[in-house]
Structure formats: C-alpha cells, structure tokens
Specification:
With 260 residues, the protein is an alpha/beta fold. It has one domain (6-256): NAD(P)-binding Rossmann-like Domain (Rossmann fold, 3-Layer(aba) Sandwich), CATH 3.40.50.720. The chain has helices at residues 15-26, 38-52, 68-78, 103-130, 152-171, 191-195, 206-219, 228-239, 242-256; strands at residues 6-10, 30-35, 56-60, 83-88, 134-139, 177-182, 223-224. The protein has a seven-stranded parallel β-sheet with strand order 3-2-1-4-5-6-7, with helices on both faces. Helix 1 (15-26) crosses helix 7. It is globular, with a radius of gyration of 18 Å. Bound molecules: NADP nicotinamide-adenine-dinucleotide phosphate. The site of NADP nicotinamide-adenine-dinucleotide phosphate (NAP) has 30 residues, from helix 1 and helix 6.
Length: 260
C-alpha cells in the first residue's frame, strides 16, 4: 500500500472514534475503520474518501467475539497494510446497581473494554515492531482514576486500560513504539444512552476530544487528558482517599441513572 500512512480506529462508527477518523483523514492519513454497524462505517467511509481524498477500508467486526482481533490483523497482512497508528477506542459501559446487571452484559463490557483491547494492543506491537515503529492509543477515561459506584465494571475496566498502557509504555521505551492513554471526561456521544444513563450537561464535544488526542499522540504523550476541567478532576482524584472519590461518583451516577 505504498507510502501511505495508515491509522486503524476501533469504534469508528460514532462518537469519539468517528471524530478521530475525521481528524486523522483531515491530516491526510488513510484509515481502517472498525465497528459492528457496517452501514454507518460505509457512510462514513464514503464521506471521508470524497472529502479528504484518502483511502478508507471498513472492517465490520464485533470485538466481543474472541477471534475478531486476529481476523483484523490477518486482513491487514493480506491487504499489505502497514499501520502507523492503532487506536483502541471501542468501549461500552452499563449504569446500575452491580447486583442487578446481567452477567452477560458484564461479559460483553469486559470482552470489549479489556480482552479485545489487550489483544489488539499485543497484535499491534508485533505488527509495528516488524516495521520499526508506530503509535498506539488506548482510550481510557477520567473514570480510570477512581472507583465508580453504580457503573462499577466500566470504571474498573478503564482503570485496567490506564494501568496496562502505563506498564507497556515502560516496556516499550527505546523501541520506536509509543503507547498513550486518552482519558476523556463526559463527552457528548451515544455512550450515556447506551449505558442506560442521562447525558451530563456541558459534556465536551467529540471533535474537541479528537483534536486533543491527535496532538497528544503526535507528541507521544503518556496520558492525554482533554480539557482543563478533566485535568483538574483527575488531579483532585489523585489527592482524595478512594472512599471520598467513590461517594462523589456515586452521587453523580445516582442523579444520572433513572433505574436507581
Ligand atoms: N462519552 C463519554 O462520556 C466517554 C468518557 C470517557 C471515555 N469514553 C470512552 O470513549 C470511547 C468511545 O466511546 P464514545 O463516547 O464515542 O461512545 P459511542 O458513541 O457509544 O461509541 C462507541 C463505539 O464503539 C463501537 N462498539 C461498541 N461495541 C462494539 C463491539 N462489540 N465491537 C466493535 N465496536 C463496538 C460502536 O459502534 P457499533 O455500535 O457500530 O459497534 C461505536 O462506534 C469508549 O472507550 C468510552 O469508554 C467515553
């Protein structure tokens, strides 16, 4: 695939992933877009190819399925695509009292946010090592920094994403590969509706998050936190005892979740 620079984005059909696709296309990168909904990926691909004259390949995949990450990287190999950037953005959560959430739903969240992200990161490292370097961005959350009563599995999964990313960053020092974590706060996407809670007023727009992520990845930053309020929130979370952070999150989640 010549000298094109390729960026793979999971969860590219809506929200932050879609905004990232538009941001990278604007900068002239060709794209591999992954999500479940083929029609949304096709529509985005058509728009991006016309608007930005870059190549776009869509891979409709359900990342909760065990084989999905291997299938994606086999397809990259088959098509001779060499990734420069791999963005593990697809993620989901579920609000509510832990004991009332179906284990099947928790399994889907864990398989997507943790298992698929872990394997995608592993495969991306092997893929990029063969080409001498690259950049990986894992989408965590401000929720990576404190316990999340009434959205517990999601917050725990995002703590995992941040921890994994920081550990790998250390292992990959001097390798030509950088791995960064993006920690957005509340962002105006489909996420809240899908997680069964109301939107937070004043949520950040996904294009602002994507802009910040794009610049952060270019600089090879370890942790990218979009917006002053989110930076302040994370700084405060680091100072507060866990039980206090938990009671603040609990109060917010109770207000947003009608089932509580
Ligand atoms: N919005 C926020 O307030 C917020 C805050 C902090 C962090 N985040 C994180 O940001 C990331 C993006 O979320 P978003 O806010 O943009 O939410 P979103 O609008 O719901 O987007 C989620 C994306 O993931 C894809 N996806 C969901 N399940 C999938 C699966 N099983 N296999 C493959 N793709 C799947 C969705 O597409 P399909 O449905 O077509 O598969 C969609 O493209 C997530 O990791 C989320 O945890 C969001």
């Amino acid at each position: 695939m010549g000298n094109q620079s390729w960026v793979l984005i999971t969860g590219a059909s809506s929200g932050i992933g879609k905004a990232l696709a538009l941001r990278y296309a604007k900068a002239g990168h060709s794209l591999v877009l992954v999500a479940r909904t083929a029609e949304m990926l096709d529509a985005l691909s058509e728009f991006i190819s016309k608007q930005f004259h870059v190549r776009v390949i869509v891979m409709p995949k359900d990342l909760t399925k065990t084989d999905a990450p291997k299938e994606i990287f086999s397809e990259l190999l088959r098509q001779g695509i060499r990734l420069d950037v791999c963005i593990n953005n697809a993620g989901a959560g579920q609000s509510g009292l832990f004991e009332n959430i179906d284990q099947e739903r928790n399994d889907d969240i864990i398989n997507l946010n943790i298992r698929a992200l872990t394997e995608m990161t592993n495969l991306a490292i092997h893929h990029m090592r063969q080409h001498g370097g690259g950049k990986i961005l894992n989408v965590a959350s401000t929720g990576s920094y404190q316990p999340g009563p009434y959205i517990a599995v999601y917050y725990a999964s995002k703590a995992y994403v941040l921890s994994l990313t920081q550990a790998l960053r250390h292992e990959l020092k001097g390798s030509g590969l950088t791995v960064s974590a993006l920690c957005p706060g509340s962002t105006a996407t489909e996420f809240s509706k899908r997680a069964g809670k109301a939107d937070i007023k004043g949520a950040m727009q996904p294009n602002k998050v994507a802009d910040c992520a794009y610049r952060g990845v270019l600089k090879g930053k370890a942790v990218i936190i979009p917006g002053f309020m989110n930076k302040a929130f994370i700084a405060a979370s680091k100072l507060l005892p866990g039980r206090l952070s938990a009671s603040i999150v609990a109060r917010v989640q109770r207000k947003l979740t009608s089932s509580l």
